[in-house]
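Possible regression after last week's pipeline update?

I re-ran a chain I had predicted before the update to compare outputs. Posting the input and the new output here so someone can diff against the archived version. Not blocking, just want to make sure nothing changed silently.
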Amino acid sequence: MFRLLRLWRFAAKDIPLLWFALRHPARPAWLWPAALFVVVYALEPANFAIPALGAVDDLVVVPLILQLLVRMLPAEIRAAFGRRLITR
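New output (post-update):
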């Protein structure tokens, strides 16, 4: 259970970065479709039809996909997000 909470803690840090990257002018072309895929995957009907599988998706798979997307972002965007956090 502790691992699942740790995964969601990572996702909580990744979501603001992905939102920043989606609005950044130098974002890669693949980012919008990938973000849309994650949203659709997280809200898929199987989550409601089979609650046990939906919980696995929401707690494990979605945070892992978010972390993968963040790692694939260009360093320029990650650095800009870090600078934005420092200046606040």
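Follow-up from reviewer: compared with the archived run. The mean pLDDT is 81. Marking as no regression found.
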